[in-house]
Amino acid sequence: MKISIVVPCYNEEDVLKETHRRLMEIDCLGMDREIVYVDDGSTDSTYEILTGLAEGHDNVKVIKFQRNFGHQPAVSAGIAEADGDAVVVIDADLQDPPELISTFIGKWKEGYDIVYGHRVKRKGESIFKRFTAWAYYRMLSFIGGSFIPKDTGDFRLIDRKVADFLNSLTERNRFLRGLTAWAGFRSIGVDYVRDERFAGETKYTLRKMLRLAEDGVTSFSDKPMMLAFSFGAVLTLLSLVMLVLSIIMAAGGNGLGGVYIMGSVMLLILGAILIFVGILGLYISRIYDEVKNRPYYIIEKRINL
Ligand code: UDP
Ligand code: MG
Question: Which of 6, 17, 103, 173 is deepest in the core (most CB within 10 A)?
Fold first, then answer.
């Protein structure tokens, strides 16, 4: 039996050697291991380091992307190329402790299809990041993603059949942790403390975070659109009432008051329309993305694969 460990890497030259050392050291409970590094278009020496690590080691594999496609595409590519009986996804920066993989494998052997890391604490991350992550998972649950385990990332072990399920998907804007939960595989969480980054800076810019957050919402909930509809309906009713009121006021001789009411109602409606056109736009741009049917990522080179 074989375990595949998928590691997405974007400009991780400062951490890779240490990461590799620790990944080779973990106890795989008697399973063979392969490590699949995905170089997500790094501009530093990440690829050179990976080539060095793979040299003379058939079980160290490298996928090089043609450019930076992002974390979720990198993870997807790694899962697609890995052929172990179980696949583990772990960040390159050692924020997720590699030693936990042994526990994951143990749970998998007990019969779970997905064993995910549940972050009980996040060290060395800004209050902003911790708060937005906390709030995001609660919001996601509220609007309909309640099946997605809170405070988890992509650090997890998935069984071969879950990997095959992910590989069979054609959708592009992926929120992997949501998709695996959505499919309803037998899963369990393992608590852990998320460490500080071993070295280097975060590669998840605010823009990339927002993009991921949006994928999570738009691919698992149409509540924002429903909300738009209900809100619009209430506003319309309200403005009708106000219209009647202002007509009565105007009839009573108070012409100016009526004008003011009308003015504010118009503004309110305009604002609401703009907000909801925006929400519609979010979904439409997703549809457009899917319809274009472009590849999710482009692989430039493979080593040992
Ligand atoms: N990553 C990637 N492509 C990107 C951004 C990040 O492959 O465009 C990788 C990165 O190398 C790391 C993992 O995704 O292994 C998580 O990124 P990071 O640690 O920077 O995010 P954070 O932990 O700060 O959320
Ligand atoms: Mg990190």
Answer: 6
- Looking only at the bridges linking them, the beta strands covering 152-159 and 86-89 are antiparallel
Residue list, ligand 1 pocket, CB within 6 Å: 8-10, 12, 40, 68, 70-71, 74, 91-93, 95, 202-204, 208
Q: How far apart are CA 34 and CA 149, in angstroms?
A: 28
Topology (CATH) of 2-204+294-303 = Spore Coat Polysaccharide Biosynthesis Protein SpsA; Chain A (3.90.550)
Q: How far apart are CA 28 and CA 6, in angstroms?
A: 14
Q: What is the pLDDT of residue 194?
A: 92
In the predicted model, residues of the chain with pLDDT beneath 70 are none
Cβ contacts of 139-143, under 8 Å, gap ≥ 24: 140/178, 140/216, 140/217, 140/220, 140/221, 143/217, 143/221, 143/223, 143/224
Query: How close is the Cα of 273 to the center of ligand 1, in Å?
Result: 36
Q: What pLDDT was estimated at residue 157?
A: 97
Q: Distance between CA 183 and CA 218 in Å, rounded?
A: 17
Helices 223-251 and 255-292 cross at an angle (nearest 10°) of 160
